[in-house]
Design brief:
1 helix; Jelly Rolls; mainly beta; six-stranded antiparallel beta sheet
Length: about 100
């Protein structure tokens, strides 16, 4: 899947924001969670995402999703990681 296809898929599924990010080699983000659903396409490098105690390794071309509020860690491989992430925020009730 290329970047244009990924962006089209994200928009069709309600991911209103798409960010392009890079992380350094062996970078580690300790357990955290996001306030948005995430859809991630790894463009280059390698990233291990651990959720529910289970590590999953993603390489270039792999895609994954994380529901808002899912505790997880992120660790990059020896070449770092370049990824695109779609963010889908929960809509607030009209007040």
């Amino acid at each position: 899947m290329n970047q244009a296809e990924f962006e089209q898929k994200c928009r069709a599924e309600g991911y209103g924001e798409i960010v392009d990010r890079r992380m350094e080699a062996h970078h580690f983000n300790p357990e955290h969670q996001h306030e948005f659903d995430a859809c991630v396409l790894l463009v280059d490098g390698e990233m291990t995402i651990t959720r529910n105690g289970k590590p999953e390794v993603f390489q270039a071309g792999d895609m994954c999703t994380l529901a808002a509020g899912t505790p997880h860690t992120e660790k990059c491989g020896p070449a770092g990681a370049h990824y695109l992430a779609g963010r889908r925020f929960k809509q607030q009730a009209a007040g």
